[in-house]
Design a protein that fits this description.
- It is a single chain.
- By secondary structure, the protein is mainly alpha-helical.
- The protein contains one helix and no strands.
Length: about 70
């Protein structure tokens, strides 16, 4: 009877240990997915900022060209 009880305790302990290990790995996967989403979001924000800066530079250049043409006419 005591052998049976010790086997049941060992089985419960093993089950709980494996469950805890699986849960810790599962939460790690969620964190990795969040990090990947954040990296994509940051990359998209950087691309958007670069595009905006290029547009602003182009607009400034166009404005300078107009001013130069005005000066040439005077």
């Amino acid at each position: 009877m005591s052998k049976l009880l010790s086997m049941l305790v060992a089985a419960v302990f093993a089950t709980v240990s494996v469950g805890a290990l699986a849960a810790s790995h599962a939460s790690g996967m969620k964190n990795e997915k969040k990090e990947m989403k954040e990296e994509k979001k940051d990359a998209a924000a950087d691309a958007k900022a670069d595009k905006k800066a290029a547009k602003k530079a182009k607009k400034t250049q166009k404005k300078e060209m107009k001013e130069e043409k005005k000066e040439e006419k005077k």
